[in-house]
Amino acid sequence: MARPKTPILSKPAIRAAALALIDRDGLEKLSMRKLAQELDVRAASLYSHYGNKDELLTEVSEEVTSDIDVTGFAEDWREGLARWARSYRDALTRHPNLLPVTAAGPGRREEALRRADAVHGGLVGAGWPPKQATMIGASAKYLVVGAATQSFARGFDDDVRIYRDRYPNLTQAHRLPEHAAEIDDASFELALTAFLDGLEGLFAKVAHAEPADDA
């Protein structure tokens, strides 16, 4: 059988090529035309699989975030939040150029909505009032997205001369980039632990509390 002149396309192949392009060149460089060139096909061929770029990005995002873990809520709310936050950060940092998509609200993305439902349900089921559960979910997301968006340690220059004499409290700042991954991981864990410890105290006050009398 003669080999087909046009490569056989599939949704997984298109998603993989799109993600590789985003990782390499950035999200703003992705277009259906550019992606078709990467795959050595005509742009029209892509539209038989995806109606537009947003539809493609939705599925790429769902695939990238598929390992985010919300199963910990079956144990208790603290374990649920910790496992969710850590796996969420891991998913975002693996593909930083895709972060504007993966960190966005769930919209109509099925998997993102499923996870949001599990987080909220896990908190409410543990005794958190619905309003508090919503605020906790939002606060945890702020912590995770902030940690994934940029590196504190990599924000410093590695030239000791910049800090010597003029910034006496930053005399070791030039060493931070060398240890950036370690610092970023430890700092995230510190922030997450402090957040969860603070919630423990709040939980004792609000969980299972009687509704306020509106009369």
UniProtKB/TrEMBL annotation:
Keyword entries, A-Z: DNA-binding, Repressor, Transcription, Transcription regulation
A Pfam family that the UniProt record links to this protein: TetR_N
SUPFAM superfamilies for the chain: Homeodomain-like, Tetracyclin repressor-like, C-terminal domain
Sections of the chain in a coiled coil: none
DNA-binding region: 31-50
InterPro entries, alphabetized: Homeodomain-like_sf (IPR009057), HTH-type_TetR-like_transc_reg (IPR050109), HTH_TetR (IPR001647), Repressor_TetR_C (IPR004111), Tet_transcr_reg_TetR (IPR003012), Tet_transcr_reg_TetR-rel_C_sf (IPR036271)
HTH tetR-type domain segment(s): 8-68
Protein's recorded name: TetR/AcrR family transcriptional regulator C-terminal domain-containing protein
